[in-house]
Amino acid sequence: MRKLTLTVTFLSVLVVGAVHYSFAKEKFNDGDRSWSRDKVKRYIRRAFAGRSEKEIKKIIAVFDAESGLKCSKISKSNDIGVAQINKIHWKRFGGKDRLKSCKHNIDSAKIIYKEWGNSLKAWTSYNNGKYKNYL
């Protein structure tokens, strides 16, 4: 029985390790403008690593409410990308076209998040509570 338990434990470690390793090796190219929803979520998790699971789920919900997690989404008010970066930020983050990159948009959102005291108060869907429909 002990040998079977050790074998199962060893195999479990191998499988979990392989999944973690493949996630760590995933490429998030800066020029990509059409990631799947799952890939967007994985990159948000990576970009906001160190935040609590509850906070990461809230961040994903806010961005989902803002853009449907679409990298090239442009709103009626000209907010761009997954995080719907407002035009007042375009210049400092490399311009409108640069912000259509999934990776760059999320990385820029993280900077805004930090500038607002690690808060989502810069996003309308957080302030009006719309994000709660996406949790």
From TrEMBL:
One Pfam family matching this protein: SLT
Residues covered by the Transglycosylase SLT domain: 52-131
Name recorded for this polypeptide: Transglycosylase SLT domain-containing protein
Native species: candidate division WWE3 bacterium RIFCSPLOWO2_01_FULL_41_18
Upper taxonomic lineage: Bacteria, Katanobacteria
